Amino acid sequence: MSAAILSVVRTRKAFGGLVAVNDISFDVAEGELIGLIGPNGSGKTTMLNLISGTLRPTSGEIRLAGSQISGLAPERIAKEGIARTFQLVRVLSSMTAIENVIAGAAFVRDPAWGAPAHTLASALLDRVGLAGRENVPASTMTYMDQKRVELARALAANPRLLLLDEWLAGLNPSELLIGIDLIREISREGRTIIMVEHVMDAIRKLCSRCVVMSSGIKIADGATLSVLADPEVIRAYLGDDDA
Amino acid sequence: MIGIRRHEMWTLFGGAAALVVLSLLPLLTDGFYLSLGVNLVLYAALSTAWSLFSGPTRFISLAGAAFFGIGTYSVALWLNNLPFAALIVIAAVCSAALAALVGAATLRLSGVYFVIFTLGLSELIRQIVSWSQSRFAHKMGLYVFTDFTEAHLYWMLLALSGVVFGVGWLINRSRLGFALRIIGDDETVARHVGIATARAKILLFMISGAFTGVAGAVVAPRYAYIEPQAAFNPMLSFTVVIMALLGGTRRLWGPLMGVIPFTIVTEFITARFPNQNSVVVGIAFLAIVYLLPDGVTGRIEALRERIRISVRTRVDAPGERAA
Question: What is A138-191 written as a DSSP string?
Fold first, then answer.
């Protein structure tokens, strides 16, 4: 394994008395695709929000390739090379598909604008399966296609770390297969990815490693199959009787 | 987006031609219609400048009177010491500086607080100017005597409108304009694609404020006697907003579609019912919000879309019958 691109060090986020993320630590190596899983309300999305800068940690540190990013504004973190999709899909509704993707490329560290941005965005739409749909208004697209647009927008930033927040949620079985293949291909291109996901099938197929959270605490971290067989993980998901 | 495309060439050419034709007005008339023309180009500049910022961000600013008054006072205070061109630069710089301060303090807040703050700010500045004039200068206003005729003011304001349109056009094709459209759609997404949203908004608020200040400076000689009640008149802020909303703020030329009918109707009402002016403006405001939420241009585009769809279905119809 190569050096860690992302290091989360004893990161905590408290909302008043509620500790949503409780001193979590984990590393992500360059090129890795890890799953961040856990039952509802276990703090997974809060963790992603801390990494992407939507929220500031109460304490602890997050480093990207060695330099501290915790505490920076989201736009600074985006410029440092972290791109994300959202749990509830967020396309720019007044714009076309290609404009949505250009938005991802135009304001990062090595911005693309004008003709090169068009070429890049067009290639990425092709990449996520939306060839020829460049000028369709994003608001008129299906849920699946809006998710594709959002993924292309995140890829347009050429991020060092890609965060997928339940990107596969809400897809029907055949869309799910296409989605899994797409994430696998992107991962094979060498992109480092953290995916928060409830679809266990996808986690098994895609992630070699998983971090499991429950009530804000990290309860397991390791190879996906052994983690999913861990009694504590099963207890967190299913309750005491089934462990 | 970098090179100038063919249809953009036509837009530029059309805009330049319109400016040339409009600049001939003072040669044809110098009475009521020239005065109406001055109002038209003044409000065209003010409303378009307002919607440069408020259109994409959807922040309603009522600080127009503050910038306008600062521009007017820049001329009134230093008219005898400095050339007029320098006063216009001072007006632009002072208004932009005020916009930067207001923006840094308030643009992180949500829309409602921004509206109230900008309205309060204009009133605050008006009170400060009134107070300092009576305290230190022992008078209520300042005289502005120049050799400018109504025709000169018309030409200067027309040129200003042209510049506002030109700058607006450049912003729309720039990354700044694109950033503001993203912010208008979804500020969270904007930040996560790397846009410093606060800075982008402040920058545009400064540009918008500077133009408003320059309009105040240019039109100052028309008043001859400047006092705070007139220079910082809150009615100006409201009128500019109403005109822009009537026209629609989604297109650069949208506010113009509100300025033309509103200015003409207001002139007519002021001539006929001088005492019911504010009542009529209030009713007009309500009517616009209820009947034309997207403005005249929004209505025009909706109609155009409906025609396009009906044409297409008519074309499709024979094919369907064959099937």
Answer: GGGS-HHHHHHHHHHHHHHT--SEEEEESTTTT--HHHHHHHHHHHHHHHHTT-
Contact A106 B193 (CB under 8 A): yes
* Cβ neighbours of B188 in A, within 8 Å: 54, 86, 90
Inter-chain contact B185–A95, Cβ cutoff 8 Å? yes
Residue B95 CA to residue B110 CA, distance in Å, equals 23
Q: Min CA distance, B185 vs chain A (Å)?
A: 6
| A116 close contact with B: CB closer than 8 A | no
Q: How far is A115 from chain B (nearest CA, A)?
A: 7
pLDDT of residue B26: 86
What digits encode the pLDDT tens for the residues B77-109? 888 889 999 999 999 999 999 999 988 888 777
Q: Which residue of B has its CA nearest to A80?
A: B194
Q: For residue A193, which of A183, A205, A179, A182 has the smallest C-alpha distance?
A: A183
Q: Tell me if chain B has a CB within 8 Å of the CB of A147.
A: no
Over residues A118-138, the mean pLDDT reads 94
pLDDT at A63 (0 to 100): 95
Chain A's closest residue to B182, CA to CA, is A92
Q: How many CA atoms lie within 13 A of B149 on its CB side?
A: 7
pLDDT, chain B, mean: 86
Question: Quick one: pLDDT at residue B322?
Answer: 41
Whether residue B164 contacts residue B49, with contact meaning beta carbons closer than 8 Å, is answered with yes
Provide the 8-state DSSP code for B136: I
Residue-wise pLDDT for B161-212, tens only, equals: 999 999 999 999 899 999 999 998 999 999 999 999 989 999 999 999 999 9
Rounded Cα distance between A157 and A74, Å, is 14
| Residue B316 pLDDT greater than 70, yes or no | no
Contact A90 B186 (CB under 8 A): yes
Contacts of B182 (CB under 8 A, 6+ apart): A92, A95, A103, B189, B190, B193, B195
Handedness of CA B6, B12, B16, B17 (dihedral sign): positive
Residue B198 three-state SS = helix
Do A111 and B185 count as a contact with CB atoms less than 8 A apart? no
Taking the CB of residue B231, how many other CB atoms lie within 10 A of it?
26
pLDDT tens by residue, B8-60: 888 888 888 888 888 888 888 878 889 899 999 999 999 999 999 988 888 88
Subunit contact A78:B194, Cβ cutoff 8 A: yes
Phi/psi for B114 (5° steps) reads -65, -45
Q: Which residues of A180-216 are buried (b: 16+ CB within 10 A; e: fewer)?
A: bebbeebbeeebbbbbbbebeebbeebbebbbbbbeb
pLDDT (average), residues B63-67: 94
Q: Residue B308: its pLDDT value, please?
A: 78
Interface A-B, measured as beta-carbon pairs within 8 A, has a size of: 73
Distance from CA of B136 to the nearest CA of A (A): 46
